[in-house]
Recover the amino acids of this structure.
């Protein structure tokens, strides 16, 4: 439906120019590498250096445009895109920037001409932009007819009707916009919620806050979700200030970029959504929804410091603030700033003491920092708050079960895992963790094996779960049956020390001693835990059976003297 931009080709430098004989070659290679790794700040620096030597280099021009867009520096991208166009080269990225510049300057006649001659983004964007541009010339009736032309494609009709409604909003014809917005399913991907909130905003603007509040209550069941609570509180007070309506056609045209960014977030490359979201931000001026998408896509691209910074731009008064803070903390943790994230989460739960999600996030952060006692307290608070509402998710019990396991509290570990399975039967992560733990403790091995077998059925390509199945069979002394499962796990997780160690034990048990020693040495090379290093080295010295005897376990064979 939406033609994919050949982002990978651009980032990888498909249109490479010959390397230079002067000092720009290092900058060229560094810029191309940074672009491939989505390191936008570094990429913009090096690609700009290259253009100082060779202003015609297509690869560096295109990568520089992309980096500027990703960083939200559209003003810097515009002159670069103009140079690209002057060179006579085709570039979807450059076309999108030039189109955005024309929109921002209300050059609607130029847009209509350019779409037929020099600018081509993709069929859907071209059609939507053309309809909006026609409205910008003052011919709203013809623009509405162009939006109606999408009705021949059922998949796009609701999408186009949303844009038709927003066009009427942009020209202050709220009466024409309202029935169109009401006809859009709130669950329509990407635009449903935005259409609903825009409808509520129009009702508020018309002095019908009571109708807006009733529509909200008819749609949502109020929970502990801070976003819903804030929206309802605003409606009760007769406002909805966070919904920013477009006041002219240029602002309204930002909806083209926002709606596509939102529509494709779950199915396209993050860079694709990021580009559209950034252009929407540029045109709208203030658009928290687009900002939120940009932050999330930056995190997906591994640019966690940039993501944290973007999440941090969302103001505390906005309904999305709480969700943005959770996203910011995740990005901070991923960037290695665990202590900073924990401090900020502790502040969040002080400000929002009745919201369980914050305590759950704090528990996750503390658990990852090996602060298990504190993590347990946070999870306890989350579960208590959840149970006052609709009950906790299986994930909270699962996470607290892991903490209990880390604290060597086996009975509470089992209780939490079994509660998680009560809420979500056959959940493979829980089945695997509980089953594997039971195997390690030599407890109810038949039940443990069945749990892990079901987990493998649910996740047949998860190496750690397949390892659990093989290890359960090993502990049940089904050595021959254990080997193929452990071999498969080692194929899926070739550098995991535990998986390689387990496979070595299985090889030993079936008489494949040299292969066992090879796997143990591999395990040592992958940085196992210190206590495992000592045990593996002991196995290499005296063999697995002797180690088992020293540990009070039965050897894998009956030929070893006790």
């Amino acid at each position: 439906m939406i033609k994919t931009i050949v982002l990978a080709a651009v980032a990888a430098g498909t249109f490479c120019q010959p390397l230079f004989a002067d000092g720009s070659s290092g900058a060229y290679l560094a810029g191309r590498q940074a672009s491939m790794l989505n390191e936008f700040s570094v990429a913009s620096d090096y690609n700009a250096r290259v253009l100082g030597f060779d202003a015609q280099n297509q690869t560096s021009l295109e990568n520089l445009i992309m980096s500027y867009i990703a960083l939200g520096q559209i003003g810097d991208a515009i002159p670069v895109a103009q140079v690209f166009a002057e060179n006579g080269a085709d570039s979807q990225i450059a076309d999108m920037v030039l189109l955005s510049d024309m929109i921002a300057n209300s050059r609607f006649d130029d847009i209509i001409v350019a779409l037929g001659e020099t600018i081509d983004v993709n069929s859907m964007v071209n059609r939507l932009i053309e309809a909006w541009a026609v409205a910008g010339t003052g011919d709203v009736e013809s623009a509405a007819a162009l939006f109606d032309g999408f009705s021949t494609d059922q998949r796009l009709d609701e999408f186009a009707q949303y844009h038709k409604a927003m066009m009427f909003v942009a020209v202050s014809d709220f009466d024409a916009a309202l029935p169109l917005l009401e006809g859009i399913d709130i669950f329509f991907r990407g635009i449903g919620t935005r259409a609903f909130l825009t409808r509520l905003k129009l009702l508020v603007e018309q002095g019908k806050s009571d109708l807006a509040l009733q529509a909200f209550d008819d749609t949502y069941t109020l929970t502990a979700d801070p976003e819903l609570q804030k929206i309802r509180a605003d409606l009760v007070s007769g406002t909805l200030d966070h919904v920013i309506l477009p006041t002219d056609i240029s602002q309204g045209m930002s909806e083209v970029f926002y709606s596509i960014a939102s529509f494709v977030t779950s199915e396209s490359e993050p860079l694709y959504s990021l580009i559209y979201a950034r252009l929407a931000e540029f045109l709208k001026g203030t658009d928290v929804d687009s900002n939120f998408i940009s932050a999330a896509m930056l995190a997906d691209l591994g640019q966690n410091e940039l993501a944290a910074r973007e999440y941090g731009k969302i103001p505390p008064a906005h309904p999305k603030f709480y969700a943005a803070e959770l996203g910011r903390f995740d990005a901070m943790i991923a960037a290695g700033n665990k202590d900073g994230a924990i401090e900020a989460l502790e502040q969040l739960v002080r400000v929002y003491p009745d919201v369980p999600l914050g305590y759950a996030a704090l528990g996750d952060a503390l658990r990852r920092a090996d602060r298990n006692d504190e993590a347990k307290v946070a999870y306890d608070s989350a579960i208590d708050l959840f149970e006052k509402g609709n009950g906790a998710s299986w994930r909270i019990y699962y996470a607290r079960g892991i903490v209990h396991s880390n604290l060597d509290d086996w009975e509470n570990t089992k209780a939490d895992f079994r509660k998680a399975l009560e809420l979500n039967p056959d959940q493979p992560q829980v089945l695997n963790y509980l089953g594997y733990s039971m195997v390690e403790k030599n407890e109810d091995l038949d039940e443990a094996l069945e749990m892990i077998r079901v987990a493998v059925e649910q996740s047949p390509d998860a190496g750690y779960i397949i390892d659990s199945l093989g290890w359960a069979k090993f502990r049940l002394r089904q050595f021959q049956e254990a080997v193929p499962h452990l071999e498969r796990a080692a194929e899926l997780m070739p550098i995991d020390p535990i998986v390689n160690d387990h496979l070595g034990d299985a090889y030993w048990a079936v008489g494949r001693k040299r292969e066992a020693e090879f796997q143990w040495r591999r395990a040592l090379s992958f940085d196992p835990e210190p206590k495992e290093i000592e045990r593996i080295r002991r196995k290499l010295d005296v063999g697995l059976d002797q180690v088992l005897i020293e540990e009070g376990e039965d050897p894998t064979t009956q030929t070893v003297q006790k």
Remarks:
- The chain is about 70% helix and 0% strand.
- Confidence is low (pLDDT under 50) at residues 1-21.
- The CA atoms of residues 129 and 277 lie 16 Å apart.
- The longest helix spans residues 154-170.
